[in-house]
Hints:
By secondary structure, the chain is of the alpha/beta class. About 30% of the residues lie in helices and about 25% in strands. The protein has helices spanning about 10-15, 55-65, 80-85, 105-115, 135-145, 190-205, 210-215, 240-254, and strands at about 25-30, 45-50, 50, 65-75, 95-100, 120-125, 155-160, 165-170, 170-175, 180-190, 225. The chain is globular. Catalyzes the formation of 4-diphosphocytidyl-2-C-methyl-D-erythritol from CTP and 2-C-methyl-D-erythritol 4-phosphate (MEP).
Amino acid sequence: xxxxxxxxxxxxxxxxxxxxxxxxxxxxxxxxxxxxxxxxxxxxxxxxxxxxxxxxxxxxxxxxxxxxxxxxxxxxxxxxxxxxxxxxxxxxxxxxxxxxxxxxxxxxxxxxxxxxxxxxxxxxxxxxxxxxxxxxxxxxxxxxxxxxxxxxxxxxxxxxxxxxxxxxxxxxxxxxxxxxxxxxxxxxxxxxxxxxxxxxxxxxxxxxxxxxxxxxxxxxxxxxxxxxxxxxxxxxxxxxxxxxxxxxxxxxxx
Length: 254
Ligand code: CTP
Ligand code: MG
């Protein structure tokens, strides 16, 4: 399938993008090795609907009216590939900068944060492995943080649909009330200063979280969930690619 790189300036979202100035820096983390996916190219570079997978999230953030600039975090030895196979194939309206990834996702986010201008009050951290994120979702999460000064951040998440079991070894020890459980996704949007401080403290405490919200929460920051769709999957194992391809195909037909 031939790649379709939309002209951002012709986008409905941009035209409709209202009164709020672009006040958000996107940090898209694409520096993982994709071990569970298993493709030697790395899952962020495999083809999805005619483009390297990571292109789809970069395009979504480029089209989001709240986003002023984009930082892509990738392995330093793959930055030429990102320039050639991602950036030069897209017509992007926002300034894009590359930052070197680290050994863990948390290190990669911290590296990306170093490139975030401190005069941009909000930062939106996103997994490059979530190609199905929609402009409207980005705008909703940013809007929630903007609208409530008591929030340190907000994240996309889905309600747990499965009954959850607390298991020790292979024995169930509890069945918690699933209505209290949500599955965290990205983007996760924070006040820039709060996320930078949370990462600094995590380094000091040698704390490794599995997402950015957990770093902010442990400092007492209030973080809200914004209900997402199950479409916004993280491509993790090879079967996920077919799911993403089908969802993107449906969307492109609309
Ligand atoms: N990521 C990153 N730097 C790392 C590890 C992960 O930038 N050191 C990014 C991945 O590229 C991905 C996102 O964080 O976009 C979510 O991570 P995950 O889905 O776990 O991707 P990988 O770490 O690449 O996959 P795996 O855990 O299977 O190796
Ligand atoms: Mg990983």
